[in-house]
Design goal:
By secondary structure, this protein is of the alpha+beta class. It has two domains: 103 residues, no CATH class; 135 residues, no CATH class. Helices cover 22% and strands 31% of the residues. It has a three-stranded antiparallel beta sheet with strand order 8-7-11, with no helix packed on it. A three-stranded antiparallel beta sheet has the order 12-13-14, with no helix packed on it. It has a two-stranded antiparallel ribbon with strand order 1-4. The longest helix is centred in the last third of the chain and has 34 residues. The radius of gyration is 27 Å and the shape is elongated.
């Protein structure tokens, strides 16, 4: 009886499903977080009667076969790249992306990572950095005695220094897009890394066709829908219970067969 093994794969799949859902719920208030969804696919099938074969009665062709599936497996965890809501903060170094794209971050090892988290701060040298202290790329250095910082929707960064009414242009932020956002590898700390599956990074200016714009003094909320996550959690729980019930039923059937004399 293969029901025990089949149901076991179902229980393992639902455990993964619950893990993904719980991570979504845990990050419901994480800036720029994108919800994930577990995707599943059926396993191979045991073919007991092949469709189209000749039957013993008159040589007619069998219209259907007899295929018994061997369970389910996790095919992947898909990142849902829908736009999160924008929340106004009043902090002039908080930046949100309204549309597609990622900020580029320089890692300590010289590599690059990408993020939707625009909760930037100023380092001791006046550089615009992430909450982990990583510099953004291209780098922005804010002059001393800056009284106001302005970031345009097109990424142009200007600083008003002391009492000078004319702003000083100190750089321009760019955004990076990917052909397949779901192919980015999550590193933690709200950072993503490019992979072969994501495709090469495509730098662009904010506001270019297919690229979002920058909103100063805003942060992007997580796109996690709590109501949907709770509903999915209930469905996963019920599916787990049904698989465990299948194991219980198969065990009872085996026990009954074992008692036949």
């Amino acid at each position: 009886m293969k029901a025990l093994g089949i149901a076991a794969t179902g229980m393992l799949a639902q455990q993964t499903n619950v893990d993904v859902i719980s991570n979504n719920i845990a990050n419901a208030n994480t800036t720029g977080f994108k919800a994930r969804r577990a995707a599943f696919q059926d396993l191979i099938y045991e073919n007991r009667q092949r469709e189209g074969t000749q039957t013993a009665e008159g040589g007619t062709a069998r219209p259907t076969g007899v295929d018994v599936g061997l369970g389910v497996q996790t095919a992947g965890v898909v990142r849902l790249s829908t736009q999160g809501g924008l929340a106004q903060t009043g902090n002039q170094t908080d930046l949100a992306i309204d549309g597609r794209g990622y900020f580029t971050v320089m890692l300590p090892d010289g590599g690059q990572a990408y993020t939707r988290d625009g909760a930037f701060q100023l380092s001791a040298e006046g550089q615009l950095v992430t909450l982990q202290g990583y510099e953004i790329d291209p780098g922005i250095v804010v002059p001393e005695n800056t009284v106001q910082l302005e970031v345009g929707e097109d990424g142009l960064v200007q600083a008003f220094v002391e009492n000078d009414p004319i702003p000083v242009e100190i750089g321009r932020l760019t955004l990076t897009t990917f052909v397949n956002d779901s192919g980015l590898r999550a590193l933690g700390d709200n950072l993503l890394q490019a992979t072969e599956a994501s495709g090469d990074p495509l730098p662009a200016n904010p506001g270019d066709p297919g690229v979002g714009i920058i909103r100063q003094s805003f942060l992007e909320n997580s796109n996690v829908d709590i109501v949907k996550q709770i509903t999915d959690l209930i469905q996963a729980q019920r599916a787990y219970e049904m698989n465990s019930k299948t194991i219980e039923t198969a065990d009872q059937m085996l026990s009954t067969a074992n008692q036949i004399k």
